Amino acid sequence: MQSGLEVLRHTPIVVIAYPLRCTNWIYFCRTFESEGAMPLFVTLRASCSSTVDERQGRAFSRDERARIRIMIAEGYGSRPFSDLILDTDKADFAETLARLEHETRCMIAT
Known about the structure:
- The chain is α/β, with parallel strands linked by helices.
- The chain has helices spanning 4-10, 22-34, 48-52, 62-73, 93-109, and strands spanning 13-16, 38-45, 84-87.
- The chain is 49% helix and 15% strand.
- The two termini are 31 Å apart.
- The protein has a three-stranded parallel β-sheet, with helices on both faces.
- The protein has a single domain, classed as 3-Layer(aba) Sandwich (Rossmann fold).
- It is built from five helices and three strands; from the N terminus they run αβαβααβα.
């Protein structure tokens, strides 16, 4: 199995969709750019009620629910360093994935 950095040597683009702090963003920028890769940062955002809705397939503990509310209040859903902010609770999974693919292809092409 190839490592992520080995794959990047052939396809020098990486999409990161993870709740980042600024320090994480700086680390990923430096790490991937030093390897000649273009990092694209995607924020996956949803309302608190959508995130904790048990119909999504996961029951969160009281502490997890509290942390989700804190992360939303801290602005994790609207990071200024995001190349794309994608609302995951506005469409079904297939539509959301199609939009993510379309938007990332557009960013790569420019």
